Amino acid sequence: MTRRATTALTTALTVLLTGCAALPGGSPATSAGPSAAQAAQRVPDGTPDAATARTRLAQLRVAAPGGLDGYVRDCDDGAACVFGRPWVDVDGDGCDQRSQVLARDLTGVTRKEGRCAVNSGTLLDPYTGETVTGVSKIQIDHVVPLAEMWRGGAGSWPAERRTAAANDLRNLVAVQGKVNQAKGDRTPDEWMPPNPAYACAYARVYVGVKAIYDLPTTDPERSALDRALATCG
């Protein structure tokens, strides 16, 4: 067998055994950023595990939701702004909460020069399972909506506590803007993430925040959260 034939045979066998990586100019596949499975498990620090979330859900008070009288989230033109201006640096680290969440949840993050604000990055959106590039397409969701906090009694809290709650990193998740808009102020009995793989994580975050702030639940909401936690395995 000639040297050329031997080389060709060796290359062919290598391709069969190792795949396209052995072809001239080829390279093994590499992983960039989290997988969909990893994104489906991503929760903020301080989120209870599934067993703890089930226990805390059982302990939540059941009560009819209050009204929205007095609830004004808008801060422009002298509006009441009952939860304070968005993205206050409540932990005093010099970086606003929105920027902290983007830096936490995105990969390949770049920041504006000399500032903590995130300039670019890529999000594997846990709510949809889709990849989103471009910070302008990403919003920060309050997993327990601020309107739901108000209905649960936040209207009687001191203003400082409402501001802290609105900026609590344990309740904030970076998601695709259009899915955040679709959710609005709806609760789990009315809306769940379109990506069913995130149901468990979403319920864990939701229950954890309600427990932290001693917010009540309703029977339909509890049933929806029970179903979501049942997917945790």
From TrEMBL:
InterPro entries: GmrSD_C. Keywords: Signal. The keyword Signal applies. Residues 27-49 are annotated as: Disordered. It holds the Pfam family GmrSD_C. It comes from the Bacteria. Residues 27-40 have a biased composition (Low complexity). Residues 97-224 form the GmrSD restriction endonucleases C-terminal domain. Residues 1-32 form the signal peptide. The keyword Kinase does not apply. This is GmrSD restriction endonucleases C-terminal domain-containing protein. The lineage of its organism: Bacteria, Bacillati, Actinomycetota, Actinomycetes, Pseudonocardiales.
